[in-house]
Amino acid sequence: MTTAVTPQAQHNLMAKIYAFVNQKGGVGKTTSVINIGAYLAEAGMKVLIVDMDSQANATSSLGFDKHTIGDSCYEILLGEPNVAEAIIRNAEAKIDLLPSKPALAGAEAELVNQVAREYRLKKALEKIEKQYDYVLMDCPPSLGLLTVNALTAARDGVIIPVQTEYLALEGLTQLLNTIDLVKQHLNTRLKVRGLILTMYDGRTNLSRQVVSEVREHFPGKVFRAIVPRNIRLAEAPSYGQPISLYAPDSAGAFGYKVLAAELLQTDNKRKER
Q1: Does residue 214 belong to any structural domain of this protein?
Q2: Per-residue DSSP letters for 184-212?
């Protein structure tokens, strides 16, 4: 399997917009968003990461202090600033970020009586999406209004990280039901783009069994590349760097580089159809 991530001859007129969703925490959503984004950027893609989680882990993982962030997703959802003014950049990783901060936790309550509240993020991204090839949205571990905003904006689909551990499939039925509801009422294009198998430990029968089980439940929907359990992936966020910069020769880096190549390759094939 090749690990080369080859850039497109030219940038898309419209960005590929994906929501990374799983209501279970600790499955590798933020890790996947950051590192797939980094390898796409390394390949020459223009990448925007949208941090829709009030824990702001994607923001912190790219080296920004969530407590000193100015405009963020919170202000965007409330309709205050121009979205372009809220975007900040990690120049080393060549990634743009629409950041988050703890105040975002209150957005659901503040938006509850607002008209078209599920479309706030979609409308904001429409103003800047032509500047990017990829927009990757990191969602909170819940299926509330913040995640629904991301699903409504996810024109090209949902990517679901699934850890290869006990009870991996738990909750996925609820997630798929939510995706179906959003598709019926808010985003008719919404679909599952693929599942990412994360935290794989090839030494255990359990990990191998979970891989088999997930592929059986979701035929043709699981990315071939598998991300191993790797301490370097856990360390990288504390240095504000993606794995491609922090430990490019690690097993975790190899996993995400192959995964980004697979995403880019399959996206290009779909575009050619």
Answers
A1: yes
A2: HHT-TT--EEEEEEEEE-TT-HHHHHHHH
Q: Is 190 inside any structural domain?
A: yes
CB-based contacts of 160, cutoff 8 Å, min separation 6: 20, 21, 22, 172, 175, 192, 194, 195, 196
The CATH number assigned to the domain holding 98 equals 3.40.50.300
One digit per residue, the tens of pLDDT, for the chain of length 273 reads: 334 444 443 445 689 999 999 999 999 999 999 999 999 999 999 999 999 999 999 999 999 999 999 999 999 999 887 899 999 999 999 999 999 999 999 998 999 888 899 999 999 999 999 999 999 999 999 999 999 999 999 999 999 999 999 888 888 989 999 999 999 999 999 999 999 999 999 899 999 999 999 999 999 999 999 999 999 999 999 999 999 999 999 999 999 999 999 999 999 877 765
Host domain of residue 237 = 16-272
Q: How many domains does the chain have?
A: 1
